[in-house]
Structure formats: C-alpha cells, structure tokens
Automatic annotation (TrEMBL):
Chain ranges of the VWFA domain: 280-452
Species lineage: Bacteria, Bacillati, Bacillota, Clostridia, Eubacteriales
Subcellular location per the Swiss-Prot or TrEMBL entry: Secreted
Official protein name in the record: von Willebrand factor type A domain-containing protein
Swiss-Prot/TrEMBL keywords: Calcium, Secreted, Signal
Length: 459
C-alpha cells in the first residue's frame, strides 16, 4: 500500500521457507530504494486456508507511516499489535488504537478487563502538566491528576491565559498567571496543583496563597479559602474539583482588602443617589451545632468584611438563632466597636429554628425608629439570612416582611434540604437566594449580594 492506494505485486515477491514473503520495491514507493527487498509475513486468510498473495499485498512506506492517524505506525499495527492500519479504532470501543496501547488496554478487545465497560468509557488515573514560562513568574508549573476517560494528553488542555484573558489577568492579588483548563474527557474528580517559586513571591506571605476559580455561570470569582491545600515543604497549592474552568493563585489578603475597601453599595451609579440612600441591614445567623467549625468562622469573617464596607449613615444589627432566637446587637453605626465584639461572640450549638430568627429580626425592625438622611429619605431595610439546616417558617412572617418593605437575602450553607424554602423566602420578599456548598462560598455569597444592590468594586 502506498499512500492509501492498493498496489499489485504479482511479480515483485518470492515466498520464503518460513512462510513469509520477500517483496521487492518496483519503484512505486518513494521512501524505499528501488530494488530493495522487504521481508513480511502474509496475513490474509480465507475461512479455510491461507491465501497466496498472488493478487494484492500491503507494502508500507516505512516504520513511521500512520495512515489512520491513531498514533501507531502502520508497521507496528500490522506486525506488532495486529490492528487495522486503515481504521483508527479497530475494536470499535470509542478509543483509538494508539491511546489504548498507551493506557495499557488491548486494542483488539473493546472491554480489555471484562468489567462491562467499554475501554473508551473506562476512567483511569492520568497526569498532565504545563510548564509556565513567563519570566519572573512565581508559578512555575500547573498539573492535573485526573480520573477520566480517554487519553488525557489528547483530550485535555492547560492553557496559560496571561494577557489573553484580561479579566483574570487583572484580578487583584494575582500571583503568577491564570490558566484555563478544558477537557473532552468525562471524569469524576481531578486535582489541580500549582507549583510556585518561593523566591519570586515578593511581599506575598506564603500562608496567604489561595486558589481561585472563575464561575462563568454567575460571572464571579470564587476564592477557595479553606479548600486550598498548601504544602509549604514542596511549594505547591492544590485543589480537588469535579469541573474545569479558569484557575489562578491569589494573595487572599490583598483580594479581601480590595473588596472591603472599594465596595460601594449605593442603589444607583449617580452621586446624588449614592448620597441619599442608606441601609438598615440585619444579619440573621444560624448558630446551630451544625454550623460549628469552618462554616461559622467564615460566616463571621464575611459579616465583618461586609460591615467594614458599610457607610457611616447605615445601621447594622445581628440576630442569632438555634432552637430560639437572640438579638446579639440592635441597630447601631457599623463603625461601632460593639459590632465586631458581637460578631466575635457568636457560638454554634443547639438546633435550628429559622422562624424564630425571622420573627426576632422583624420585631427589632418594628421597634427601631426609622432613620432619615438630610434629604428626608429613610434607610432601606434588608435582612441577610444564613442557614444550613431545616427551614421552618410561616407565610404570615414572610407577608409581614414584605408589607414592611424588608427584602430578605438568603444563603444556604451546605447541601441540606432547605434550598426550596430559602428560595421561596427570597422570592416572596424580593430578595435573592445564594447557595454556598463550600465554606469559601459563604463569604462570596454575602459579598455577592452587591449585585442586587448595585454594589460596585474596582481593582
């Protein structure tokens, strides 16, 4: 065969005693010297007997030719693996012959290990690396360990997008470069690892390094505060995920400082509206036992960050609830030291009674004198409800909030069954629902309320 064409070698071969044939190039193959001979074994058979090659024979250009582009030289396909050099997937299992060989599968069997799963759908542990060649870049290498289908080196790409993805390139606190990871493989999990050069971190504290990913659906960046695994001995950061996106390493201290210092949560872009509209914000916080650990710590830290971004004419209050509710702090100026103390004193224990928290917050709004600015505009009222447990409430309570003009923004922490209820609470009161499956999402959900209130931040 020369470039896919069948050639007749009726007069160009002689049979050897061992059953192989000595084929002489008659000049049709440019890669083999004219007159040179190649010894091959015949492979054509009828149902009953071996057919003498008196009509057609395969003659391959050289050992490097890959006619079906499956990653295996034609010579190896015929004489080593016995696969079809004209079909990239001899056994029709959805995985090309070359990939099967590299992954340790049998390219002649569509289910090499007889587990009932086609080789093309079999998930295997594989690794892929991308060296970062930017000068003076603190990130030297990005790698993934993935349990996925197919040959990952062919299905997956790690791309350095520094200077290409300008949004990610301009992220405040960026360390190194952003990378975009895409794959055609199906996978259960993948661990992304960033290797960094400590000598190039500059003024960045190693302990402040965190991985961040871009949530395209919600158009925001999610910092993996507690999910990032920092290995200072080996200078790596890693994170295990079930999806791919754009990932980057940031200095979490600089990131949060930027959010806190530049958030402007007026309801309109005009200066007049910014000066005329203020807010009364009541945090209603689940302090039940299931909130213990990272959840309550991150919730408290997020509340502090939100509070620091509030205007001096705003007011903030805090209600905590477990089996019962308690007013931790009545409405006061955000800059009052009592706000930090009250947030710091919240402890997680007991059951979950959302209704008691909502009622306590509504009662607090009722008995608090409205505050107006110099233009006679009253503070707008809102609640931020953080909860991770079963959600009990009454429609009467929601109607009471709506009639009072109080929007309730709800944040579900974890994977509990309370999602539908919290979505309903937000919808009825014209607030918005947020889901926080990971502890870092709590912080992002609270800050993310800025999108509804037209918060703006720069950097």
């Amino acid at each position: 065969m020369y470039n896919g064409a069948w050639e007749n070698y009726d007069n160009g071969y002689s049979k050897c005693e061992d059953g192989s044939y000595l084929i002489t190039n008659n000049g049709v193959n440019a890669n083999i010297e004219v007159g040179a001979s190649i010894k091959v074994s015949y492979i054509f058979k009828t149902q009953d007997e071996v057919v003498e090659p008196t009509y057609h024979m395969f003659l391959y250009e050289n050992s490097l030719n890959d006619g079906d582009y499956d990653g295996l030289p034609d010579y190896e396909e015929v004489f080593l693996y016995r696969t079809n050099p004209k079909d990239p997937d001899t056994d029709k299992d959805g995985l090309n012959d070359g990939a099967e060989v590299k992954l340790g599968f049998n390219p002649l069997l569509n289910d090499s290990n007889n587990d009932g799963i086609l080789d093309g759908q079999e998930k295997t542990e594989q690794n892929l690396e991308c060296a970062i060649e930017e000068q003076e870049c603190a990130i030297s290498n990005v790698s993934i360990q993935i349990n996925g289908t197919g040959l990952v080196s062919e299905t997956t790409e790690i791309q350095n997008t520094f200077g290409i993805d300008m949004l990610s390139t301009g992220v405040v606190g960026l360390v190194g470069v952003p990378v975009n990871i895409e794959t055609k493989s199906e996978f259960d999990r993948a661990t992304i690892t960033f290797a960094y050069d400590e000598s190039k971190l500059g003024d960045v504290n190693e302990d402040d390094l965190r991985i961040m990913w871009y949530d395209e659906e919600n158009n925001n960046y999610v910092i993996l505060n507690n999910e990032t695994v920092l290995d200072k001995e080996n200078n790596t950061l890693s994170y295990t995920t079930t999806h791919f996106s754009t990932y980057l390493v940031v200095d979490q201290k600089k990131w949060y400082e930027c959010w806190r210092s530049t958030i402007n949560y007026r309801t309109d872009d005009s200066q007049e509206t910014q000066e005329s509209q203020n807010f009364d914000v009541c945090f209603v916080v689940d302090r039940s036992g299931s909130m213990s650990g990272n959840s309550i710590i991150t919730a408290k830290d997020s509340m502090l960050g939100f509070n620091e971004a509030m205007h001096y004419d705003d007011r903030v209050a805090i209600v905590g609830f477990d089996s019962t509710a308690q007013v931790h702090l009545p409405f006061i100026c955000p800059s009052d030291e009592a706000v930090k103390n009250s947030i710091g004193n919240i402890r997680a224990s007991g059951g979950t009674n959302v209704e008691s928290g909502l009622v306590a917050a509504l009662d607090l709004f009722d008995k608090t004198e409205p505050q107006m600015n110099d233009n006679g505009v009253k503070n707008e009222k809102m609640m931020i409800l953080l909860c991770d447990g079963d959600v009990y409430y009454t429609e009467a309570t929601l109607k009471r909030a709506k009639d009072a003009g109080i929007r309730i923004y709800t944040v579900l922490i974890g994977w509990s069954s309370g999602r539908t209820a919290l979505e309903h609470i937000a919808e009825v009161t014209e607030g918005k629902f947020y889901s926080a499956q990971e502890s870092a999402d709590i912080r992002d959900a609270i800050y993310g309320i800025n999108r509804i209130l037209s918060f703006r931040w720069g950097g």
